[in-house]
Amino acid sequence: MKHQLKISNGAIVVTLLLIACTKTYSQRSVEAYGAIGGTVADVEKWAGLSPNDWGTGMSGWSIQAFLIGNDAIAGGLEDGYSYLMWYTFNDGNFNIERNVEANRILLMGRLFPNKSLLTEFGLGLYLFDGFSDLTIAGGIGYKIKITDQLSIPLKVRVDAVLDQEAFLLPVGINGGVAYKF
User: Fold this and answer.
1) How far is CA 146 from the centre of its chain?
2) pLDDT tens readout for residues 121-142
């Protein structure tokens, strides 16, 4: 049986205080992404049974808001959705298909080695139907500048979904649009 991850109230308060006490600078942005890729997974272990068939194609979207930081480092939040994989199994009479998908929310950090290159890292939750899993994220990308405020970011992103039954590793190529204000 899957478990629900509980976050302590103390951790939430400390996080909000750190965000509130941080001075805001010029690297504020809102970014929207689409993603496509694959999920590295032991489907049988995840499903808890022997599936007849499966696919591990991954797709999704996300919105990132970086509201604190400067030209070298930024912090913010990500809200998104991931379709991770599917599998079918026979219940004795019928083949049943299950889709594995989740909403996600992460605290994000970003480093800017130069004006175009970016690296990012995150910590948060994948919110499945009825349970949630701790997630660690990382990525590297490049921003194509269109104007001083508008750019097209492209990145490779890997999330480690730390489920108690089976580890999931969605890997995707992300592309989108970013507005700096």
Assistant:
1) 25
2) 999 999 999 999 999 999 999 9
Q: How far apart are CA 67 and CA 30, in angstroms?
A: 8
Give the C-alpha separation, 85 to 24, whole Å: 39
Q: Give the CA-trace dihedral at 13, 112, 158, 161, to 10 degrees.
A: -10
| Amino acid at residue number 168 | L
- Nearest-5° Cα angle at 52, 47 to 57: 65
Model confidence at 24, pLDDT cuts 50, 70, 90, reads very low
Query: Residues 35-50: pLDDT tens digits?
Result: 999 999 999 999 999 9
Give the 3-state secondary structure of residue 107.
strand
Contacts of 174 (CB under 8 A, 6+ apart): 33, 34, 35, 62, 139, 141, 153, 154, 155, 156, 157
DSSP-derived 3-state class of residue 39:
strand
From CA 101, how far away is CA 60, in angstroms rounded? 9
| List of residues 6+ apart from 67 with CB closer than 8 A | 24, 28, 75, 76
d(Cα 50, Cα 129) in Å, to the nearest integer? 21
Report pTM: 0.83
